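Researcher: I need the complex structure. Ligand is zinc ion. Inputs:
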Amino acid sequence: MPITNARDLRAAVDTAIAQVPITDIHTHIYAPGFGDLLLWGIDELLTYHYLLAEVFRWLDVSYENFWDMSKTDQADLIWKTLFVERSPISESCRGVLTVLERLGLDVGGRDLTAYREFFSQKTPEEYVEQVFQASGVKEVVMTNDPFDDLERPVWLEGYEGDQRFKAALRIDALLNQWETAWPRLKEWGYEVTPALTDKTFVEVRRFLGDWAARVGALYLAASLPPTFRFPEDSARATLMKECVLPVCGELNRPFSMMIGVKKLTNPRLRLAGDSVGKGDIEAVEYLCANYPQNKFMVTMLARENQQELCVAARKFRNLLVFGCWWFVNNPSLVEEMTRMRFELLGLSVVPQHSDARVLDQLIYKWDHAKAVIADVLHDKYADIVATGWRPTEDEIRRDVAMLFGGNFWSFLEKRLP
Ligand code: RAT
Ligand code: ZN
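Model: Output:
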């Protein structure tokens, strides 16, 4: 039935978004088969690195003393500092409260002991089910790093797979730290040398092919600094040209570039110590133009890059813009970016990924994102309804399914002539 009035339109958009099964295309959570690598529960939520960065603004303990504390003590201190001694209004603090509320806990009670008690009753397996159900997530893509000494053995020792947890091969260590990556490759039986010779390229390609197959990678991925340039006379650009792009091309897999992270601006903050800088859109344009049969997924960290990234995607069909990443994953910026993307690219984007590191975060990251996307999408339909265009509920459901997963899956399938 075509929709003709404002109330039906709002209801149709809200229902479609509430019911859509989500493919979360970039996370840092692991399947239960990875054991302790799967993080969940209140203490992990409170010690999330987004909150670590916020708590240090108030603390007067030294970084070293803080890192020496147990996780429970760190969580206690974060709770006291960010939730009790002042109101938890930041996006990351609010996220913890959304999770508690959606799990049916008494947020007003502010009872950390009761929250811990709740989580102590859960098993990871049942809790994964509950969180997927509560967040509307059908499947997630993990971040799988063969250079990670905790993760690599799981793959090598016969991890059996889990349909809900897809894989992406993460190759930051290879591209951004060749000096420390090549000895690891050599240790694992790849005949590489520090010099970037033809033989080394063959072996790096073999390494990438082996691992892409082993994990069943949907795409290859790297985070890149604001100084990332392409082409360029550097190990990174050379390895991309000679190894990553050919392997992605051969496997028809996208290369996902997350551009704009300044690593360890404050190393004493550890995982929370990274910052942001404006990236170079020309590198993205060059890659899309000169490798038209390769597919690129791109998200950029700086607000200042968002418009030019949309424009680049208008020029290149082998570019899929995705997500509002990390420092732009705040409702005000998600709204601005989502509006701009719909206006410049229509429905041909993946508006959000969760980047969840703690299982429970799927609940809040998607709750918060869905609310903003629903508002923006509603406004865009309302604008066309005002012209006399009559969308149907089925069409709205179709569009929403594209945004929350369909576009990603069709991009993976796409073969460029
Ligand atoms: O958002 C984050 O959790 C960051 O620490 C990064 O992990 C980023 O998302 C990345 O994938 O590099
Ligand atoms: Zn991430």
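Model: Summary of the prediction. The radius of gyration is 22 Å.
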